[in-house]
Amino acid sequence: MEVPCVRVRREDGETARKHLADDDLVADGFEITHEDGWLYIPVTDEAMVPEGMDVIDRDAPERETQTAPADLLGFEPSYERLGRAVIVDEDDVDRAHEIADAIVASDLPVDVVLNKASKVKGETRVRDWEVLAEANEPTEERASGDDRPSTEVVHREYGHAFALDLAEVYFSPRLATERHRVAEQVAAGERVFDMFAGVGPYVIPMAARGAECVGVDVNPRAIEYLRENAARNDVAERVTAINDDVRDVAGEYADWADRIVMNLPHSADEFVDSAAAVAGDDCTIHFYDIQHEDDPFGPGERAIRAAAEPDYDVTVETRREVRSYAPHELNVCLDVRLTR
């Protein structure tokens, strides 16, 4: 079967395999092969392989010893992975526990299986969780802190590691590709202002590219994790983390930013005046919104123009559908350039 594989020299193979494994990118269902001095390591997601690694499509034999949850259940369950946590969304209690038991008994790398117990709620956008099952032998990373909550994970994304507690902060692994798209636009020396920074999924990779970053969030636990993650990823000297309402902080950073991230769908339009205040003479805003499919970009663009014109020329450089959010509703991003 043809799968994406990282190609490395055999002498570098173990280092590369460990690096990929740390990011949960090794496709354990396929064999690592070698030919003519090269090692071919199958990966789960080609898009998330760190830059600098050579990825090619290649035939790889399937491992016969790997057991998937579906093998034990007789059906394909729906779940997503965040670090070594597996998340399900099941209303039926018996079915939820059946799936959780199969996940733990399978060959998936997992420490805990969680079920969504509420909708995202409140100003900090967190939800309740039910712990369905935990691995009998957790990883050293989890075992090193017996008092850590089951909802705390370390998620790896495009070469960066993010510690977070799902019960105390908001985080969506589904936006990894979108975050990477934006981070790749950042140049060393830029000044970046993230208005709703969370645990740092935008700030950390941007700082790693050499930007000076300010991350603001009303959730004190998110800011604690942002500081921890800045240190974890060796970018603390380029990250300022502020626990406050961004509307109360904007005046301190007037005319400062070269780039602004506004990832607060549903209500980012309430903060466009603050974004215009923070923007420098030439500034790019990444504005996220959730709108009806009939006019997904119009409301956001109108809100930005109302806040920025006539002080700025406003140019919409990218209109991007990030994902479907609900029937007839889209999560979108506007990349907007403000030029004074």
Automatic annotation (TrEMBL):
SUPFAM superfamilies: S-adenosyl-L-methionine-dependent methyltransferases. GO terms for biological process: tRNA N1-guanine methylation. CDD domains: AdoMet_MTases (cd02440). One of its GO terms (cellular component) is cytoplasm. Coiled coil: none annotated. Residues 79-340 form the SAM-dependent methyltransferase TRM5/TYW2-type domain. Pfam families: TRM5-TYW2_MTfase (PF02475), Trm5_N (PF18093). Keywords: Cytoplasm, Methyltransferase, S-adenosyl-L-methionine, Transferase, tRNA processing. InterPro entries: MeTrfase_TRM5/TYW2 (IPR030382), SAM-dependent_MTases_sf (IPR029063), TRM5-TYW2-like_MTfase (IPR056743), Trm5a/b_N (IPR040601). The keyword Nuclease does not apply. One of its GO terms (molecular function) is tRNA methyltransferase activity. This is SAM-dependent methyltransferase TRM5/TYW2-type domain-containing protein. It comes from Halovivax asiaticus JCM 14624.
